[in-house]
Amino acid sequence: MSQPIIDLTRSLYDLTEDYPELIPILHEMGLEGATNSILRKTVGRKLPVAEGLKRHGISLEEAKRKLEAKGFCVVSEDDPSKNRKERREQLKEIIRDIHRQEDPAELRERFKDLLRDVGATEIAQLEQELIQEGLHETEIKSLCDVHAAVFEEGLNNQVVEEVQGGHPVHTFKKENREIEKIVAELGKLFELLSQSEKTPAKHDLVEWQQLHERLCEIEKHYSRKENILFAYLEKHGVNAPPKVMWAIHDDIRALLKEVSKFLQDHQPNNQEVKQMIERNARPALKMITDMIYKEENIMFPMCLDTLTDVEWAEIVEQSAEIGYLVNPDVGWKPVEVPEGAASLKQPHIGGGALGGSEAEISFETGVLTQKQLNLLLNNLPVDITFVDEQDRVKYFTFGKERIFQRSKAIIGRQVQNCHPPDSVHIVEEILEDFRSGKNDNAKFWLHLGDKYVYIQYFALRDEHGNYAGTIEVSQDIQGIQEIQGEKRIL
User: Fold this and answer.
1) What's the domain range around 49?
2) Is residue 339 one of the residues assigned to a domain?
3) What pTM was computed for the model?
4) Locate the DUF1858 domain: which residues (predicted)?
5) Quick one: CA torsion of 373, 377, 379, 381, rounded to 10 degrees?
6) N or C: which terminus of the chain carries fewer CB neighbours within 10 A?
């Protein structure tokens, strides 16, 4: 169990108000005024405990030794680097205590001195370090709401940078306000339906369906995070928090999918409606609301601390294709303008040596300009993604009707981080089989809305048989399956 952490640079009054058990201990150590309530509330408001002890001839080392013998961990300003390390370890131990099922309220009380100034970036770093040290991501995910509750005071005390309309964080928050309105309307409707003993009125079910469809637009919000924002965080070495958050997105998606299916399948009776509300619909609303808190108090402040103006500008450029729940405001402009950030819709065409004509690329079976090659690849009736031998995404086609969302942010991203956490083990198994030579292809097929998607993975090998990467080929085969008879050119 972690020890309570006290900071001796705090005033006598503040420290003893938070830890009244210190009063007799400090008195025994020679700080006689500690037991005098009038002195504590007057002089003690301005007197740092460390200074008071020093005046009474008690060194900081002696004070730390005695207080630690009484079960406290002491921090001060005598060794900043050591204190930072001790603080970090104590904070990680608090998270471990959470996972040992200790009472969050008791932890908040015991570590109030330490927790009052913990910010978003620090929490994310702590969770990442713990995962690197062996704590499984699913454990972090299962208790991340408790983490937020324990660190709530520090999160609420942090000063979060205000951003101008048009900045990606401003747009995410604007969407959250819209989501909150939908959640509130659904909450009122669920209250009405839960209290009724009659067969649900058709107009109530229609209203639920309409509100639910609006809520499902949250997919755009989550997709921009997963496919763009998380990719930029990973470039800065921030890997664990995005994985945890993506896993929660998938849990929300699963609940929303069950509600969608329920509302479309049949005319439910009163009992079925109540069961669906309690089993799926209300839990989804709570998870969405909790996610908004985690976004605005942990994820977005951390992103603002981490990403550059150039990166935010690139995020704006790539977000429009996925779409928004609301129209973004305008006004924000990056201080730094990204140079040479070529749009995928307007690929850079290299000039040739003669008269500015396009350079040609020679292949075994022909010659193409870069423009021709780009047109050819982007007009194939399939989506293609290339992953190199180091498992990094190096290229994807940019056709008009794409199966899966892709953004420029994934270029250079580890392919494992491009997939939902629950399916990463399958991706790793495919790549390992390709790398070892056990397999050369893998095939999957699934229904995705009105599409029937066929996904194929192929191992690439050089002339010596060495593994050189993987290509993913995806296509909608719904129309192909419906083909009958013949249609000849001649």
Assistant:
1) 1-78
2) no
3) 0.65
4) 6-62
5) 150
6) C
